[in-house]
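DM from R.C. (forwarded with permission)

"hey, sorry to bug you on a friday — could you get me a structure for this? deadline for the figure draft is monday and I only need the backbone to look sensible"
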Amino acid sequence: MDVKPGYKMTEVGVIPEDWEVVELEQLVEPSRSIRYGIVQPGGYDRSGCLMVRSQDYSRGWVDEANMHRVGREIERQYNNAKVKRSDLILTIVGAGIGQVAEVPCWLSGAVLSRSTGRISLSRDVCSSGYGKACLQSGFAKKQILDAQKEGAQPVISCKDLSRLKLPYPSLQEQEAIATALSDVDALIESLEQLIVKKRNIKQGAMQELLTGKRRLPGFSGEWEVKRLGDLGRCHRGVSYNPIADLSIFDKSSTIRLLRSNNVQEAKVIFLDMQYVDSKRVSSDQILRTKDVLICMANGSRDLVGKAGQFLNSDGLKYTFGAFMACFRPDVSITDSDFVFNLFQTSKYRDHISIILAGSSINNLKPSSVEDFQVFIPTSKDEQTAIGSALSDMDTEITALDAKLSKFIQHKRGMMQELLTGRIRLV
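My reply, with the result:
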């Protein structure tokens, strides 16, 4: 590989000649070594010390009220496993291994759990923002993956963590890189907060519009109780032999097959596709635009009943597996968008929970879905107006999600350029 002038090849890739490669332990405060925390935290102590677990920061910091608290005796035993503001913590056990977060000021003095490792960077040698970016980078994640040990759960030791090799520019350049990435983080965080706000607004609108508590302008007619089965039909998915009937390639003799993992956050996701022999598929099992795809059976009870609206315009045929079903609204008597939103209500989740509570297996029947009782306007025009209003909110949220994905991708590209010195800020 040719290396352009001013750069050199190292263990972490090509970096500027004036940068070094150091091990993580060289950047840590001498008096606060990399370490994990409490193995057996005991019961919750309302007046005790906060304890940081990996799930507390895996999707942004949870509220303090949702964190565990340990008693004073355990806190005393693990006094040297406490964190302070700007420490970095990294998940060292479990599926989220390698997840990194910076300790906020309100958590200063909390203790660590066994699943988290503390990294206290020495401020006179390494910027915490730069260190966090390095630990989030592809070259660090690869080293963590290579060092992790498999068992009941993947784990990386603090000793192996301390040996991670990182590119090391001057402190001035570290701070410039950290500032640039922090600006992008601020944009991402503000967009995430906006998305949460919009979702909460939509949830509130659903609660009011789908129950008749709030009427849209121009409507005053009666509402009535119906079964979902009065508004359409629920069709069970395709039964097939996974060896004889499935293909990993799309062929003229196959149809694209959607399964439980293709329904995520009320959307149908067209990833991780499989292809089933078209001879196994009936005409009712070919999905139509605005069908509601439903998970009917799953090892996790919480996932049974999850639903997403099928929206696709690529002209290809799609079907769904035996553990799935689709509810097909009768568009001559009801509005498809209105019906789909009924599957997102707490009343629907309560209906599913009651059915599963009386069963030893996590499995719904089509009749279980069709028997769900709903309160709807007698006027299809009002249904359409409500469905359109809620659909417009979904469209806005989807656009914001797409924008967020672009920002995140942009940050990854920036990290790759800045942490390898391809772009110099100083």
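R.C.: lifesaver. The mean pLDDT is 93.
me: no worries. The CA atoms of residues 210 and 376 lie 7 Å apart.
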